[in-house]
Amino acid sequence: MTDQTETDQTESGLARTAQPHIGRPGRHSAASETHHAARDEGKADVPPDPVFVTDKLNVYYGNFHAVTDVDLSFGKNEITALIGPSGCGKSTVLRCLNRMNDLIPTARVEGTVSYHGHDIYGERVDPIEVRRRIGMVFQKPNPFPKSIYDNVAYGPRVTGMKVDSMDDLVESALTGAALWDEVKDKLKQNANGLSGGQQQRLCIARAIATTPDVVLMDEPCSALDPIATLKIEELMAELRNRYTIVIVTHNMQQAARVSDRTAFFSVQQKSETGDRTGALVEFDKTTKIFESPSDRRTEDYISGRFG
Ligand SMILES: Nc1ncnc2c1ncn2[C@@H]1O[C@H](COP(=O)(O)OP(=O)(O)OP(=O)(O)O)[C@@H](O)[C@H]1O
User: Domain ABC transporter, which positions (predicted)?
Assistant: First the structure.
């Protein structure tokens, strides 16, 4: 985490914070070629401007091969939905995008995850820096048992972000998460006093307070009622203007409503061993996946015949 290359000055957001780079450039090129080759061959429509490209991504938990050979790209300022039956590896793939799997002692990741052209698993990469730029919101709202203000200020403080005015930053993050009007008069109150939906928006404010350019969401609405869910979906549509979003959801209507592209995963048997493993079946524009999927397994799943 010392040198800063020219490439780092581009879209990774590094120039904005003058942070050192988080990965070695170059390995992206192979994945990028694959990506363009797929487009040129007239296959599925892939994002023209990817923030992430995964190349032969494999994840193991101990000896268990959880996901196999995932090649995916995630478009800038797009919402990409990861869908599929339970256990197909959606959350595992999501966690690879900001190295959250590092926190699981048995997890091992193979293949490449390029982020703006840098391998986030490169030797000199600081995972903390990765997670600052690639924020995450979890299934269950998980505010810290602190004040609303301190929840939002937490990330900038612990990562040592240079901030002119913390008050302004907190207001801007809460505004970005569509929560400011509801909490501006009780910023010192404990966050646990908020409703579930408000808590989840607070978690989104906490995630965007460190000025990431990607927000990963792991079933962010599964613990919320329909009205709170609708608010989060509306918020996602707004956030898309400023961030790249990847969402894992069990709710196919939600994927169809909010996302630009959808990746459908399923559990398959490996031909060599018969072991079960998660695999990407189809990735395309969301309208294509839901209106005329290319793969029978996708069609069976979205029509409710399987999973
Ligand atoms: N920490 C872990 N240790 C061991 N195995 C794990 C771990 N996390 C996930 N797995 C296994 O890896 C596979 C993929 O799990 P993952 O949670 O990524 O799937 P998912 O599609 O997100 O599932 P769900 O929709 O049920 O949340 C499953 O077989 C799961 O049991």
Answer: 51-292
